[in-house]
Amino acid sequence: MGRKGSGIPGLSFSWRRALGISQAQARLSRQIGIPLSRSGRQRRAGKMAGCCVPLMIGAGLVRLVLWFV
Hints:
70% of the residues lie in helices and 0% in strands. By secondary structure, it is mostly helical. The protein starts with 14 loop residues before the first helix and ends with a helix.
């Protein structure tokens, strides 16, 4: 199934950009430091979880060692 649009290749119109919604959303996202798009939030959460994994492994090893002592 093809993309629905104006029918003229290379010509598109976005009512969100025309009303300034996209710009306001991007500005707000930069100010609060949290992405408002779903993919942006998922990317940020993955980045934060990635840096915590070595800490969690270290804490688990310490607990394991203390459990056997």
